[in-house]
Amino acid sequence: MKIIKTFVTGLISAMLILSPVAYADKWGDQFPHIKATGDIPGDCSYEEMSKKNYKGKTLKINTHAVPVIGQPTALHAEQFAKLTGAKVDVTHTPAGDLYAKAMVPFKAGQAPYDIVFGFSNFINDWRQYLAPVPKKYMNSTEMKDVTKSHVGVSSWDGTMYQYPVDGDRHYLKYRKDVIDNPEYQKKYKADTGKELKVPTTWKEYGEMAKYFNGWDWDGDGEKEYGSAEVMKKDDLMFAAFFSRSVAYAKNPRTPGGFFFDLETMKPNINNPGFVEALGDWVEATKYVPPGGINFGLGDEIGSFGGGQTLFSFSWDDAFIAAMQDDSPIKNKVGTAPLPGADKVWNRVSGKWENQYNQAPYIVWGWAVGVAKKSKVQEMAFDYLCFFSNGANHQADLAIGNFGVNPFKNSDFDPQLYIKTMGWDADIANSYTKTLKDMEKSKNRVFPLRVRGVFEFTSAVATGTSKALAGQLSPQEALDEVAKEWEAIVNRVGKKNVQEDYAVGVKMEDNKL
Amino acid sequence: MNFKQKYVFLFPGLFVLIGILIFPIIFVIRLSLSGWNSYNGLNFIGLENYIRLFTDDPRFWESFFRLSFLSVTTVILQYVIGFALAHMVWKDIKFQRFFRVLFLIPMMTTPVIMTVIWRTFFHESLGPVNDILSNFGMSPKWLTDPVLAKFTVIIVEVWQWTPFMFLLLLAGLLSLPKEPFLAAAIDGASPVRKFLYVTFPLMAPISIGAIIIRLIEASKIMDTVYVLTSGGPGTSTETSSFYIFIKGLREFQMGYAASMSFTYLIIMIVSLTVIAKVLTKLMLKD
Predict the structure, then answer these.
(1) Does the A170-363+443-508 domain belong in CATH 3.10.20.30?
(2) What is the least distance, in Å, from the CA of A113 to any CA of chain B?
C-alpha cells in the first residue's frame, strides 16, 4: 500500500512539476519565437487567445517600417491570425510619416486602420480619435505588470489611450572590452594625460570617441569609429539632440520648463545650454563612421550592434542588438547613464553654473492605439494585449532591432536577461540598474507632449541638421528653431500649448 | 442627333474631368485659405497662408531654386546622353536590338527600389563605390556633403530617366525623312555637318516636346530625394515637392501646404510655358 501511495504521490508530483513544461512546449513548438519561455499564463496568453474566434473578421494595422516595431507587429499579427482565425493586414510606414498617415483619415472622420502605431508624444493630437483602453484590459494580468510611469505615459487625464507595448529611455552604451582594457587605459593616459573610463560628461565622451576613431582597435581587420548616433534629418534626430542637451540645459534648480519657460512660453531652445550641446554634436560629426551624419535609428543599431563604434546613446535597441547571440560583441558592451556636463545653464540668472549636472531623458517610445471609429475594437485590443503578453514581450526584448524595450516591473529583474538571454551577470545588473536609476532620478526630462508636437520636433530636426551639415552655426540654427517655435505657439494658441505643456512640466518638477 | 444628345455623350468625360482635375484644384484652393492642421479644422483664414509664404518662408524659395537647378541640370544631361545613345542605335550597328532594350532597362525599374539600391552603392562606409575608390585613396561623402549630395541626386535621376529621353528621340530619329540625308550625302557633308545642319534641326520639334515632358516630370523630384537623402544633409537637397510633403504630410499643416502647392502650380505653369516658347524660338528659328 505504501509503495502504491509513494508511486501515486510521485506521479502526481511529476505531473504537477512537468505540466507547465508540457504546456509551454505546446505553444513553443508551434511558435518558435517563444521557444525560450514557452507560453506564459495570463489573460492574453497564447492559450487564452486560442479560445477566441475571429474567423471572417479583418484587422487593419498601420505600423512602422521593418524591422524596428514593424517586424514584431507583423510577427504577432501572423501569430494572432493563426490562433484566432482573423485576417490581419499590416501596413508599414516610415517613422516620419506615421503621424500624418493616421491624422489624415482621423481628420476626415474615417478609420482605414483599426490600430495605429506612433510615438507616445502624439497622444495629445491623437487621443480624441482613439478609443480608451477598456476596463477589462486595464485589469488584465499583463497590464498589472506595467510600471506606474508607463501607465501614466499612456494616459491623459487618467484615461489610458495608448496601449503600453514599449518603454524607452536614452542612455549610454559603450564597448566594455575597450574602456575596461588595462592596455588601452595605459595607452590613453600616456597619449592624452587623461583616464580612460566610462565617460560622465559629453566632453569626455567626445575626447574618447575622437581618440578611438578611424583605426582597428578590436583587431578584427576593420576600422572602428568613435560613436554611432541618429543624425539623419527627420528620423528621430530631435530625440538624439535632446539627449545631448539635457546635461547643459536641465537645471534642477530652475523648475518651470525645459523646452519653454512655462510662464511666458518663450522657447528655451536657443539658450546657451542647448547651443553648447549642439556645438558638441557638430563636433561629433568628426568621430562618427563614414556616412554617419545620415544614420537613422536602424543604422545606429546596426553600427554599434555590429561592433563598428566605441559609443552609442539613444534607445535600448543598439545595446540589445550587441547582446544578441549572433553578435560579434556579445557580453563586450556596457551601459551607463547619459553623460552629464561640468556646467549647467541657469535660465533664470542667465549664467552658467559651474557644477556637475546629469539628467536622464525619458523618451518613452513606441505607442499604439485603437481607432475610436474601428468596428473591431475588441479584436484590436485583444491583438495589442496579445502583442505584449508575457511570452511575446520577453522574446521581443531579446531582439535588438524589434524596438521593444522594458516597461514592465518584471523587466527590471536581471535574472531575466541572465537566464533567458545568456547575458553576463555584471552586464545584466548594470543594465537593469541604469534603467532603474533613471526611473528614480529627480532631474528627468520628458518629451514634449503638446498640440502640434510634430511641428515642433520637425523644426528642431531641420535646424539641427543644418548645423550638422555646416549650413548654419549652432547659435544661428537654434535661433531659427526658436523663431519657428514662437510662430507655432502663436498658430496653436499660447494658452493651448501652455495648458498641454504644464502636464509635462509637473512631471519634470516631480509634482505629479 | 440634336444638341442636347451631344451633351449627354460628353457627360462621362466631363464627369471624370471634374472628379479628378477640377474638384481637387478647387479643394486645394479652398484648403489654402484655411488653417487646417492637427489642431484646427477647415476654417477660413483668408490670405494668411499666402502672406506667410511670400514674406516669412525663405525655405520654400530656397527649395524652389534648388529644384530649378536640379531639374534643369538633369534634363540637359538626359537630353545630351539620350540623344547620343539614340543616335548610336539609330545607325546600323551590331547588336542594335540588344542595345535598344538594354538602354531602356533603367526606366522599367521601380524608382524607389532603384534609389534604395543606389543609396546602398553610395553608402559611405559599407557601399561598393567607396570600397573601390578607397583603393585610390578617395572616399567621397556622396550623401553627407551638401554639394556632393546634389550631384548624387543628379546621377540617380539621370540614370533613371535618360532612357525615356532616349526612347522619344529614337522614335523621332526613326521617323525622319530620308531625302535630306541623301541630299547631304550627295553634297559630301561630313558626319558632323550632317548632324548639325540636318539631323538636329529636323529633330527640333521632337526635342522640344521631350525636354518639356521631362522638365515637367523632373520638377516633381520627390522619391529620389526622399529615399536617397531625406532632403539632407541639412536642407541641401530639399526640393519644393519634398518641402511641401514635409509641411503637409509630416507636420500636418495641410492649409499651408495647399497654399504652397497652388503657388507652385502657378509658377510651374508660367515658367514651363515661357521655357517652351523660348525653346521653340531658339530651336525652330529657321
Answers:
(1) no
(2) 17
Say if B106 is an interface residue toward chain A (CB within 8 Å).
no
Q: How far is A228 from chain B (nearest CA, A)?
A: 12
Q: Which of B56, B232, B249 sits opposite A465 (nearest CB)?
A: B232
User: Which residues of B fall within a CB distance of 8 Å from A232?
Assistant: 230, 232
For residues A133 and A381, give the distance between their C-alpha atoms in angstroms, rounded to a whole number.
Answer: 8
In a domain, residue B54? The reply is: no
Residue B258: CB atoms within 10 Å: 23
Is the ipTM value over 0.90, yes or no? no
Q: Which residue, chain included where needed, has cell 536657443? A: A270
Helix, strand, or coil (residue A485): helix
State the residue for C-alpha cell 509664404: B53
- Cβ <8 Å between A469 and B36: no
Q: What count of CB pairs under 8 Å joins A to B?
A: 106
Report how many domains make up chain B: 1
C-alpha cell, A9: 504521490
Q: Are A383 and A84 in contact (CB under 8 A)?
A: no
Burial class of residue A485 in the structure, from the number of CB atoms within 10 Å of its CB (0-12 exposed, 13-18 middle, 19+ buried): buried
A87's CB contacts (< 8 A; 6+ apart) are A57, A58, A59, A81
Given CA atoms A327, A328, A331, A336 in this order, what sign does their dihedral have?
negative
Q: Does B236 touch chain A (CB under 8 A)?
A: yes
Q: What is the CA radius of gyration of chain A?
A: 24
Q: Is the CB of residue B62 less than 8 Å away from at least one CB of chain A?
A: no
Q: Do B252 and A234 touch (CB under 8 A)?
A: no
**Amino acid symbol at A318:** A
Determine, for residues B146 and A470 on separate chains, whether the beta-carbon distance falls below 8 Å.
yes
Per-residue pLDDT of B160-184, as tens digits, reads: 999 999 999 999 999 999 999 999 9
In this prediction, residues B232-243 reach a mean pLDDT of 94
Q: What is the dihedral of CA A127, A131, A132, A136, to 10 degrees?
A: -160
**Which CATH architecture fits A43-167+365-412?**
3-Layer(aba) Sandwich (3.40)
What is the number of alpha carbons within 13 Å of residue B124 lying toward its C-beta? Answer: 22
Chain A residue numbers touching B144 (CB-CB < 8 A): 291-294, 469
- Tell me which of A235, A237, A294 to substitute to probe the interface with B (most B C-beta atoms closer than 10 Å): A294
Domain-embedded: residue B203: yes
> Chain A partners of B41 at a C-beta cutoff of 8 Å?
107
3-state DSSP assignment of residue A325: coil
Q: What is the pLDDT of residues A194-238, one digit of tens each?
A: 999 999 999 999 999 999 999 999 999 989 999 999 999 876 899
